Amino acid sequence: MTDEQWALIKPLLPAPHWDGRPDKHPRREVVDAIMYVVRTGCSWRQLPVDFPPWQTVYWHFVRWEDQGVTQQMVDVLRRRVRKEAGRKAEPSAAVLDSQSVKGADTVGADNRGCDANKKINGRNRFVIVHIVAKPADQRGFRVHPRRWVVERALAWLMAYRRLVRDYEHQPPTSEAMIRWAVINMLARRITRGHPAQRPGPRPLKRAHRTK
């Protein structure tokens, strides 16, 4: 994340020591690591060694999700994006669409299915986005540019490699991954046009092996 993006996200995280345990690693590095997993599609255990330990990153990922932190972050950032675009904070109408995503071997048989039309064995991903109403005088079918924003939103999600295929054992984890992708997109949109000020390179940590 850039400094501007971190400035948006930092105040939306729980207060330090919210669970009684001191933070051993900077929260910005933890958030960067979560974003890295979502963006690149790597597994938690494959996080580069210059990030905090994967166990720590995953621990924060789970705890923040249990506390509803990611949903609150999405709501706050979404409202800001809408207000800056001259819209009301909450939409008055929406369009719903789904996307069939192949499931990896880690997806259990009890929460996956087969899309007979698209011949995809996995899960259906549903999204809802704002849409303008059909003109009152319209007769018959007519294409409206805003009617297809839902397909555009699904295409944006597919830029995050962790979402190209569903690897998560439980659906709530898949939803969490989608929320983190949306958080990243909204933060980038809000700070668009700002010069990218990133922190200096972190010193690489050597991987220690024990016999």
Continuous helix count:
7
Question: How far is the first residue's CA from the last residue's CA?
Answer: 37 Å
What is the spatial order of strands in the main beta sheet?
A: 1-3-2
Rg value: 19 Å
For the biggest sheet, the summary is: 3 strands, antiparallel
Which runs of at least 5 residues are low in confidence (pLDDT < 50)? none
Number of domains: 1
Q: What is the 3D shape?
A: globular
Helicity range: 25-40%
**How confident is the prediction overall: mean pLDDT?**
76
Detailed description of the structure:
- The chain is an alpha+beta fold and 211 residues long.
- It has one domain (3-137, 145-190).
- The protein has 7 helices and 3 strands; from the N terminus they run ααααβββααα.
- The chain has a 3-stranded antiparallel beta sheet.
- It is globular and about 60 Å long.
Keywords:
alpha+beta, single chain, 211 residues, 7 helices, 11% strand, three-stranded antiparallel beta sheet
Quick synopsis:
It contains 7 helices and 3 strands.
